[in-house]
Amino acid sequence: MSVCREVITLQLGHYSNYVGTHWWNLQDASLSYDPEEKPGEIQSDVVFREGQTQGGHVTYTPRLIAVDLKGNAFYFSAAGVFNLGVRTPFGVARHWEEILMVPFLCSGSLSMDTVNSRLQRVQHSYRLEGSVKVWSDFLRIHLHPRTISIIHQYNHDGEAHRLEAFSQGESLLQGAVLDELEDKLHFFVEECDYLQGFQVLCDMADGFAGFGSKVTEMLQDSYSGRGILTWGTAPVSYADSTPVKDIYHLLNCTLATVHMANNSSFFCPLTLRGGLGRRPSSPVSFPHLSYDPSLWFHSSSVLALALDALTVSYRLRDNSVPMWQLADTLAVSGRKVVAAYGAVPFPMMHGSSLPDTLSSWTDAPPWKPLSACSEMSDGRCYGQWATLRGYGDQSLISALPPGTPPTTILHSLPSGEDVLGSYIRSFYPTSPLALQLLATPSKLTPPYPQIFSPQVDAQVSSVPVLTSLQSNPALQSWLSELHRSTSTLDIRRVAPSFLSQGLESSDYDEALEQLRVLARCYRDDSGGVMRSSSEEEDD
């Protein structure tokens, strides 16, 4: 019998809670309450805790601590569980529970085909793009009473009392805020039998960057030996952005990268921005997605779907890879920043095989950057962890009639692992590579947005996803550009209030030096492409 190695999740900041809410909705959609059903590939108890409602029914709540600012719409019952009032496009307050209970309410008098048809119509009639204001508007699960932490010192919106600077967030983790967080952590930790670690989602462009840096430092000090996988999130854009706020965002991202990488097993930025600088290139586009980059509800759903595959290795029922092993595979020789890439969705159409799909992508892998870090085209990579999730009943190998010569090398291989491994190695011939293939897809249920192109399926309920976590030389350019963009700023002139919030000039200068040293860890002296002038100057 497999051992359940528990994980505690922390979501720090508003956009991180957007991503986390979609991620938890995906997890909830895959839960089974039927004791007779065969256990699936994913072990839900890794991230969920089992409990009972007041009526004695089995329920699952996330092993989660979610931190946000006052001004968000939270609704709690007397028992402390989450009740969600959704603002629908029709202006009527409804509960997602009413939608999800349709099969149980109707099954006594209607056939399941009719029930499913009604549920599908409900799903496609709810378009929340115009009504979602905060992440609690589309959370479809119950939360434990100890999950939510509200920081009352700062406002979610408005002009006054905003959590905008790194040092503001750093100074928050003391007094009552620290006591409350430690109390919640101890509660969830004490329930665990085999705690493997923490997955931390943290906003990296506002003051939560400083808060998350202190939280990961506390986790490192208090739970030495546990995995700490930190995902730094950033939206594509902010509705209230100004030139000065853009500078703040850049400075916060820079300091977040340095400090959270120091305090974590690894640190991975997650964003669909074209870069973390003040003038990024166009947002990431995907061939089979029609999403609005300006809508947090949309961009966070794409990142959450990718994150569902990126985190699957330590949530498996069988052959699970613990957090620390995943980190040790990638974060070698001080290279604790990793980059994520994803094909969301993976373009494996109905009736095609894995060799058919991959052989049509000969110039480059089908994935796109999820960390604002483009891949290098010369095949250099220090380590890679690739996951294909959701191939379902599609064929992983080519079913050729006897005597038929294979169309490509991929069509001649005997297993899906061989096919995917051979394909990736054709681009990274000398890179260490770890692979995982799962048949089970991420189930897309309401209120996941309808962002898939008609070529996928107008009635899509699940999609395959291919992701890659990499430690590669491209991160040197990425980190060096972050260092160059920040170090050329005279923040005493262009953003004096950033220092006045409590950040010491010496600490700022030290962080920039640490960033420069971190970038050098990714330098490949074995040859390859010539380094840019900015990278030479950083040396």
From TrEMBL:
Subcellular location: Cytoplasm; Mitochondrion
A cellular component annotation (GO) from this entry: mitochondrion
Alphabetized SUPFAM superfamilies for the sequence: Tubulin nucleotide-binding domain-like
Main location: cytoplasm
DML1/Misato tubulin domain ranges (all copies): 131-316
Top-rank taxon, per record: Eukaryota
Gene Ontology BP terms: mitochondrion organization
Record keywords, A-Z: Cytoplasm, Mitochondrion
Gene3D superfamilies with a match to the protein in the record: Tubulin/FtsZ, GTPase domain
UniProt domain Misato Segment II tubulin-like: residue ranges: 5-77
Keyword Nucleotide-binding listed: no
Pfam families: Misat_Tub_SegII (PF10644), Tubulin_3 (PF14881)
Function: Involved in the regulation of mitochondrial distribution and morphology. Required for mitochondrial fusion and mitochondrial network formation.
Similarity field: Belongs to the misato family.
Protein name: Protein misato homolog 1
Biological source species: Gouania willdenowi (Blunt-snouted clingfish)
Higher taxonomy: Eukaryota, Metazoa, Chordata, Craniata, Vertebrata
Annotated gene: msto1
